[in-house]
Amino acid sequence: MQPVARLLLIEDDLTIRTPLIRALRERGHAVAAASTAMTGLRDALDDRPDLVVLDLGLPDLDGREVLRMLRAVSSVPIVVATARDDEAEIVRMLDAGADDYLVKPFTAAQLDARVRAVLRRSAGDASTGDPTLVVGGLRIDPRSRQVRLDGVPVELTPREFDLLHHLAGRPGQVVTKRELLTEVWRIPYGGADKTVDVHLSWLRRKLGESAQEPRYLHTVRGVGVRLEAPGAAR
After folding, report:
1. Which of 218, 149, 50 is nearest to 141 (CA)?
2. So where are the chain's domains?
3. CATH fold of 133-227, please?
4. Which comes out higher in pLDDT, residue 37 or 88?
5. Among candidates 106, 93, 134, which has minimal Cα distance to 20?
6. Is 184 helix (H, G, I), strand (E, B) or coil?
7. Could you read off the pLDDT of 139-167 as tens digits, one per residue?
8. Which residues contact 184 (CB under 8 A, 6 or more apart)?
9. Phi, psi at residue 49, to the nearest 5°?
10. Which CATH class is domain 5-123?
11. Do the first three CATH levels of 5-123 and 133-227 match, i.e. the same topology?
12. What is the chain's alpha carbon radius of gyration, rounded to the nearest angstrom?
């Protein structure tokens, strides 16, 4: 069977690592593993896997630092797999650039499903001839994860980019906070609306606008937010 994907599992617990490697290989993936943060970072940069599964409780460096370091040099999809189940921690990891978050204990089937979902989303970004989204003076390129506003580069965090990209894929439509939490933050439950509000505020500032004087991002009170080009007819 051809491997579905080349995975790198960064996990220090042998009792977890060994059965996961076996189960993921049985599901058609090619799996490499590292038991320390530094080895995992080296393997991720040298071998360029299709996806990284990252534990946070590593012996030599906290997984949060590994995530930050990986995101500084690579756009490889990352699924965080850890025992830390605090909602604030989950949001921080997703904001820092994780593509999904899985709380231990979990089954290999659950991890495999998350891996396949993340890879499908990543493949979808790259499968079209020109995936660049254009809304007015905004140009959003998911391949390079670059944004330009009236020809000027806009520096966004990974989560700000994901938020803008999701909204730009639905120009003129009102997108609810629940949908944003589910599709951008991958949190399938409520209770984190403030996270969306804060990121929208940061995004507005970088686009040179405010909630009181919007150009692209329009809040629909009690419903959600709409992205549209300035001057678009309603």
Report:
1. 149
2. 5-123, 133-227
3. Arc Repressor Mutant, subunit A (1.10.10)
4. 37
5. 106
6. coil
7. 998 878 889 999 999 999 888 998 999 99
8. 159, 162, 163, 166
9. -65, 165
10. alpha beta
11. no
12. 19
